């Protein structure tokens, strides 16, 4: 696809041409088979800990949006996959330096050409987004979408860091829970159910 074709498809919300730029969800999840995965959320409380080396020791480290990393001691240094629901300034992209980008947002008009043509690019299906939204009764966070998807893979272990469902707010913004379109109680219940039923998933 040319850049012009991409811009036309994005503007007119033509999903099929955009999806053609993406690896399949099966191929994405197959890459995780048998691996340990660290999913790093953006809760402020994570900055108070010492989990950095532990995070970086995983086979795959996945971070979210602007991936704040106030210190290597608390957050680690590596980012293998970056999951986005917002546009990313070039300086931030260079700082994070992910090897693969996942576009999780249903808002396709925010998707940029550089992201869509990044090697290994993944576009999260709208049906998955809508299904989880219906289950939660609210727009799901990027973290919730990732956990829901990763739990369906054959990974060996999924460690969740920086997920307190907005109890300590977010390192990536100053908004309070009532200022964002998410239901953190519903998301906590969803993740709690997965923790209880799937021993591979650990909340740190």
Q: How would you briefly describe this protein structure?
A:
The chain is built from ten helices and seven strands. It has about 200 residues and is α/β, with parallel strands linked by helices.
Just give the CATH class: Alpha Beta
CATH homologous superfamily annotation: Glycosyl transferase family 29
Number of domains: 1
On the 0-100 scale, what is the average pLDDT? Answer: 94
CATH topology: the name is sialyltransferase cstii, chain A
First-last Cα distance: 42 Å
Subcellular location: Endomembrane system; Membrane
Pfam family, one: Glyco_transf_29
Membrane topology: Single-pass membrane protein
InterPro entries: Glyco_trans_29, GT29-like_sf
């Amino acid at each position: 696809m040319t850049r012009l074709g991409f811009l036309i498809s994005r503007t007119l919300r033509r999903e099929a041409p955009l999806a053609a730029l993406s690896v399949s969800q099966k191929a994405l999840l197959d890459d995780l088979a048998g691996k340990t995965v660290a999913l790093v959320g953006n809760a402020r409380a994570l900055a108070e800990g010492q989990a950095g080396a532990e995070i970086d020791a995983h086979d795959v480290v996945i971070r979210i949006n602007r991936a704040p990393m106030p210190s290597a001691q608390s957050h680690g240094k590596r980012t293998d996959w970056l999951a986005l629901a917002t546009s990313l300034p070039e300086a931030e992209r260079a700082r994070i330096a992910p090897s693969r980008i996942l576009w999780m947002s249903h808002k396709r008009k925010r998707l940029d050409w550089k992201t869509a043509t990044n090697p290994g690019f993944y576009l999260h299906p709208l049906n998955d987004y809508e299904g989880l939204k219906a289950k939660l009764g609210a727009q799901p966070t990027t973290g919730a979408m990732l956990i829901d998807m990763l739990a369906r893979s054959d990974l060996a272990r999924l460690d969740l860091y920086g997920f307190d469902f907005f109890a300590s707010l977010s390192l990536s913004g100053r908004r309070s829970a009532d200022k964002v379109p998410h239901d953190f109680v519903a998301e906590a219940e969803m993740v709690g159910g997965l923790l209880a039923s799937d021993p591979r998933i650990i909340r740190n």
